[in-house]
Amino acid sequence: MNVHDSEKILGVLDAEGYKATNDPLTAELIILNTCSIRQKAEQKFYSELGRFRALKKKKPGLRIAIAGCIAQQEGMKITRKAPYVDFVFGPQNVHLLTKFLKDNEPHIATEDNPDIALHELPVIRNDRIKAWVTIMYGCNNFCSYCVVPYTRGRERSRPGHAILKEAAGLAESGCREITLLGQNVNSYRSDLDFPGLLREIDKIEGIERIRFVTSHPKDLSDALIDAIAELPMVCEHIHLPLQSGSDAVLQHMNRRYTYKEYREKVEKLRNKVPGIAITSDIIAGFPGETVKDHINTVNALHEIEYDGIFAFNFSPRPDTGAAEMDDSLPQHIKSSRLYEILAVQEKITARKNKSLEGTRQEILVEGKSRAGGKQISGRTRTNKIVTVETSDCTEGTLMNVEIVRARQHSLEGKLPKE
Ligand code: SF4
């Protein structure tokens, strides 16, 4: 979400005649697009910001701006701590950047923007083959650990026609894969609902693959499962964050599903979409998490057998419900639970990857592999990275490969003989 926000910021700047540079010494304007989803990202931001103070001393005309969720959350506190910052704008106010660039006044823009879904911003994308497309902004769910509803505001869906126009434009310019973005795409609603939107995008000529993130399990409907099963362009992968395998913890997290309900949805998905890859997010050491709760999470990993997970220790976020809860679990216990969760999942991922050896997979070629040589890299429809040795490296082509070796985080393929 943040990376795509940066693409929009670049789009707005490009329309104003700015060009990107990777060298802060030559920059006239530096924008830090921040994330506050975890404490660590926030700490990193403040240490990074300090580096620009010296730069501004050397170059007084340099303007420094802070964007993103920390900007939204901290607002004026940032300019109090760092008076050399020229303007601060939250994720709902990127459209105001044009105005800020035109005058030399300091600005703080953290207001709620109910019209955000109606602002069509220019976007500069680095990737020609794959693109993110925002379908909705904000979130209404208020999971107790999450800062997003406070920083990105309430749920607002973009009109279907605007999304379809963007997707058609991307297809025309050679884009092959789009990922629809929203905090909870399952609750997308405009003139279309989310399965309806998928059905329309599926008809666009040139788009070969459609992905989406993120799906809240409570809103995963039968109609959506049917759409994934029926639509040829919709990939067989879903990121469905469980967060915890304990009903008590899920309740404290305000997730509004039980583990049993979640399991039933996974079963439905696997029955209707054979081979679908399922990934998840897990929080270790949520306030009040007992040993039994933790064991339930580990058991859930064994039972569900995800293709991969993102797991983190709980860190309290300002203004959220969980920040008020008793977070007295010692850090070393949180860390050892996280370690166990990651270790269990590593084995499951390795086993699942191994089971793909000898199978044929369609990959979308993304370019040369970072490993160098003649290796190219692409992804399967289930979102697994495959490297293949071949001299044919046309980005954006679909290629059938045979998986010859599974590694921990990727697969090795070869071109089949016939
Ligand atoms: S659904 Fe996602 S974005 Fe919304 S509050 Fe919950 S975790 Fe945060």
Largest sheet: 5 strands, mixed, barrel
Structural class: alpha/beta
- Oligomer class: single chain
Strand content: 15-25%
Give the count of helical stretches: 13
The largest sheet has its strands arranged as: 13-14-15-17-16
Task: Quickly name the level 1 CATH class of the largest domain.
Answer: Alpha Beta
Considering DSSP H and I runs of 4 or more, what fraction of the residues is helical?
25-40%
CATH architecture of the largest domain: Alpha-Beta Horseshoe
- Topology order in helix (H) and strand (E) letters: HEHEHHEHEEEHEHEHEHEHHEHEHEEEEE
What is the strand tally? 17
Architecture overview:
The protein has 418 residues and is α/β, with parallel strands linked by helices. Helix content is 35%, strand content 21%. The chain folds into 3 domains: 2-109, Methylthiotransferase, N-terminal domain (Rossmann fold), CATH 3.40.50.12160; 116-354, Alpha-Beta Horseshoe (pyruvate-formate lyase- activating enzyme), CATH 3.80.30.20; 360-414, Nucleic acid-binding proteins (OB fold (Dihydrolipoamide Acetyltransferase, E2P)). It has a 5-stranded mixed β-barrel. It has a 4-stranded parallel β-sheet with strand order 1-2-3-4, sandwiched between helices. The mean pLDDT is 94. Bound molecules: iron/sulfur cluster. The site of iron/sulfur cluster has 10 residues, from helix 6.
